[in-house]
Records
---
Amino acid sequence: MEPDAVMYGSLAKFAVKAGRPELSRELFSKAEGGGRGLKNYMWAIRSAGQEGDLDRAVDTFRQLQQSLPETIDVMSYNIVIDVCVSNKDMPRALGLLAEMRQRYQLNLVTYNTLMKGHCIAGDIGAARGVLREMEEAGFVPDVASFSCLLSGAAKAEDFDAIWATIAEMDRRRLRPDSYIISIMMQVSRRTSNTAEALRALTVLDRPDVKICEDEVAFNTALDACIFRRDRARLERAIGAYDHSQVQASVRTYGLLIKACSILRRTSRCQEFWRDMVEVRRLPPNDICLGCMIDALVEGHLVDDALALFQEWKAHVKCDTILYSTLIKGFASAGDADRAMAIYRDMQSSGVRMNHIAYTALINAHARKGLMKRAEALFEDMEKDGCKPNAITYSSFIRGHCVRGDLSAALRCFQRMLDGGFSADCVIFNTLLDGCVQAANFELADEVLEEMKAHEVEPSNYTWSILIKMWSKRGELDRAFEVLRA
């Protein structure tokens, strides 16, 4: 039995929505014998647009004009114009628009599509010109109209235009939809302007904003609040989720777990994991598994993290980040042997190390004064092409100080400076504390002078070391001076 034009059209629609343009193209070709309907052509045009093949998209539209001229309408033109603007070809879109104006009256969708095209091209002025033309033609802009303007302003990081657009929507009593919310969350997530990033998050405080009405909006809101470590809004988002009908995807579960980890609610992370895996029977991906393992490590449940890793290792691709999280967990717990076991597992699995994992391993050994092992790991690190950072050197300095080998600590300090790294307060505190522990007060004075020369401000921990130093030197007056300071 051969499918008819209607069935081919439906199949092509599903192929395009599933991101399978090659299948849609094949279905369009097969539909020729059974008679192609308008829908077949429309989905073929969209499919060509997905592949970025504008020539094929426009050629298909021309075929439609020749084969079924009576079916051509405003919607047909809108679709092919949208394909052009989405692929950043405004000249071709404007050419089709001029052709369209000769036959039909533009509608709201046409104007919104043109605004979208100008915004994609970065021409906000032209987009606003289309908005004025739209109103002069008697059309009332809708939320989609302002979404186009907002998206363009966000792309340009034009904060005045962003807030002017929001204010104009408020004046027209247009409630922000999920797309508006997503744009504002992307602004918060991407901008380097912290003040504007936090201001963008205030959109979530509006009574007319319901983030749980759409999973995409909810995910972008969670992601932005996680990135900005906004615990108060994360609490509210989790509360809203609990009273919503949202059917979480694996991505959403990963974000929920990450959010609860930031809120130090490890047990809630475990609840979300069980709901996903046991109740909903959704298999995790590598990102979601990584979020859960990180949450367990942050909650000091490293054994549970390892058990979860072992359970899913055969089913989920475990990458460098996931292994690094486990290594850091055991390193932070002072368990250098188990951290090394993960390292060996990583090597046998063919997963590349990164500087974070190496630094964690080196730190685990250095904290116990196991400097030979730390040095061997440093050699492996260099062989793997992983460059050390200031934290790596700080771990070595701490390890040498633990062993009381101040000469080696200072050599490592100089090596760090020669490598182009700046010494921070933590490193100076490590050196200073090592000197005081070894009662090498002359060297401690030299470290203090170096600290001044590098213009490093002392921390509270620095002051506590100085009080201890002057007390050990028997100069209690100096100790009290530091205390008063």
---
Amino acid sequence: MPLDSYVDYPVILMDVLPGDPYVPTIWKDYRAVIDQYALKSNQEQAINKFDFYERAQKAYAVVTTSETALYANMILKKGVVTVE
């Protein structure tokens, strides 16, 4: 599934709340996968928890996984699938 190449941030993460010292360790794993397949770098953006919830409500599909890491939520904006 290609990510949308016409938006600045096709990967949206839920940011840690202000004042929370937690550093999401899962994000490093996400970046490794994104960088492996992405056409450009720095495609992810972390947004406020409540802004994330608003965007998630408008999602076309929601996928639930067995991932239990904190702040492992993400929104992906799909790009156009082309024939190679």
---
Amino acid sequence: MAVTKMWFTYGAAGREDWYAETPYGEVQVQDNEYPGFSDFQNHEIADVVFYTAAEGLTDKYEPEGITAEGYARVAKGGTGIHKYMLGDNGVVYEMIAPKDQSSFSSGFGEYDDGMKGNYTPTQKFEVSNDETAQAKWKEILKKYQ
């Protein structure tokens, strides 16, 4: 598996806040102050993406972040893109989707004039079943509470 920090490409189109839908409600992933931090119960603290590198690329390859291209050039066909998000509520979320249905903006929606706009998430993040990751994330967060 290869790893990248290119999971959303911050500054994606739009001026409003971006969010992900989870079983615990919306998680703010980009704060453009509209509607703003306080309007979300949960917030993304960290994130990472895992994928199977395309032939000829190594697991150390970092995509250059061409938004329109997404993972098309770097991920092997027929494999999944695994997005992980660490929430400030102590939960590790994941969204796994086929490469051909994944982009940097997959799983995210944008508010428009402070309300949900036309661009809503087409995929939801689920609570990760990785119990070790869940326990470790809670342990790390506890140090800061």
